[in-house]
TrEMBL record:
Residues annotated as signal peptide: none
Function: Catalyzes the transfer of diphosphate from ATP to 6-hydroxymethyl-7,8-dihydropterin (6-HMD), leading to 6-hydroxymethyl-7,8-dihydropterin diphosphate (6-HMDP).
Catalytic activity: 6-hydroxymethyl-7,8-dihydropterin + ATP = (7,8-dihydropterin-6-yl)methyl diphosphate + AMP + H(+)
Keyword Transferase: yes
Protein's name in the database: 6-hydroxymethyl-7,8-dihydropterin pyrophosphokinase
Cofactor(s) needed for function: Mg(2+)
GO MF entries: 2-amino-4-hydroxy-6-hydroxymethyldihydropteridine diphosphokinase activity; ATP binding; kinase activity; magnesium ion binding; thiamine diphosphokinase activity
Record pathway: Cofactor biosynthesis; 5,6,7,8-tetrahydromethanopterin biosynthesis
Top-level taxonomy: Archaea, Methanobacteriati, Methanobacteriota, Stenosarchaea group, Methanomicrobia
Ranges of residues in domain 6-hydroxymethylpterin diphosphokinase MptE-like: 31-186
GO BP term (any one): tetrahydromethanopterin biosynthetic process
Family the UniProt entry places it in: Belongs to the archaeal 6-HMPDK family.
């Protein structure tokens, strides 16, 4: 998504949650600085995995394990939203791409990364500690921001890890996007998560 189209949505999110745009921009700059060096993956590597492919986009709702029984994952390029990675690994599936702001089970993500998963790491004002701790341990990273992307970062659009998978797959030319592990009506979540899921629903429904 063009940044000009994303910006008004981002402004509404910032206002709704009371996030600081400056903190988001500083986090993006931090990630940009850390990605100068040999650990970066190329956008072409990511595009090659997604373009012209049927993608399976895995959210981390409690329904994920059961939803996976209804599809044939090996027919798809598997994209995991953060915590979905552990569930996939338990099923013997290694995601091709992990979209994460590093607040899930990062040890499992590092394991998947060592087995070849490209990490699409998102910078925002509330994850700079995680960025500093974990980015040096990763290889094959693409950096994203929710602000205007600084040097070397991308902004495909989207807010939560799950809906950012959808924006990314769409922008990079996926032939289809099958969503599993998305349950926006999950009541077993706290208020903040509920609010984030409502934004995820709203953003994903924009694609329907
Ligand atoms: N019921 C659900 N519970 C949790 N995640 C869900 C659910 N339904 C859909 N998702 C999607 O799965 C993604 C990954 O879930 P995970 O539990 O790892 O959350 P998270 O890392 O805290 O998400 P975020 O960092 O985006 O807030 C979420 O970003 C969300 O878009
Ligand atoms: N500043 C800020 N940005 C975000 C946050 C967050 O907690 N703080 N959480 C996100 C997905 O959950 C995505 N973006
Ligand atoms: Mg996350």
């Amino acid at each position: 998504m063009e940044y000009d189209k994303w910006e008004p949505i981002y402004k509404k999110i910032v206002e709704d949650f009371g996030f600081s745009e400056d903190a988001d921009a500083n986090a993006a700059q931090l990630l940009s600085n850390l990605l100068i060096g040999p650990v970066k993956a190329d956008l072409k590597d990511l595009t090659d995995i997604i373009k012209g492919k049927d993608t399976l986009i895995c959210g981390n709702a409690p329904t994920l394990k059961k939803d996976l029984e209804q599809v044939n994952p090996s027919d798809h390029a598997i994209i995991a939203a953060d915590g979905a990675t552990s569930v996939l690994l338990e099923q013997g599936l290694i995601p091709a791409v992990i979209v994460t702001d590093l607040d899930g089970d990062v040890e499992k993500e590092i394991e998947a990364n060592k087995k070849g998963a490209i990490m699409v790491v998102h910078a925002h004002g509330d994850n700079t500690g995680k960025i500093l701790s974990f980015v040096p341990l990763l290889t094959n990273i693409i950096g994203t921001s929710q602000t205007k992307p600084p040097h070397g970062l991308f902004n495909f659009g989207g807010f939560t890890d799950g809906d950012r998978c959808v924006f990314m797959a769409h922008q990079l030319g996926a032939t289809s996007m099958t969503l599993v592990g998305f349950d926006f009506d999950d009541d077993n979540v706290d208020e903040l998560k509920k609010k984030k899921l409502n934004w995820a629903r709203r953003l994903i429904e924009g694609f329907a």
